[in-house]
Amino acid sequence: MTTEPCKDLETFDNPGVGRDYTIRIDIPEFTCLCPKTGQPDFATLTLEYVPDRLCVELKSLKLYMWTFRERGAFHEAVTHEILDHIVAATCPRFMRIRANFNVRGGIYTAVIADFKKPGWQAPEAVTLP
Fold it and tell me: Looking at the annotation, which residues are catalytic?
């Protein structure tokens, strides 16, 4: 059983490569350190993506998230870093990460960052009665 953080993001072949569909992953226990004080910052991350050829494997994603636990990082920087790493591993059609950080000093922070593959168009939204 792996009990160590790991920066390697594993992938697997997208079983629905012929269609656009959304994968949503909620990560309610993300932790990093405040780069100014060293105190822990807690966040809930929501990762949403439309895969192309690859999907991210969840155990490797969990171990990847663990690598931030002892690192100082500004909320904005860590959100963009995570997006960049997962995009590099999976090459999705579209990916969005939302990082909702818990209150610190009376202030909540939410950072939202997107990636869109050049040329990809989102399907038209369907509204059902």
Answer: 34, 41
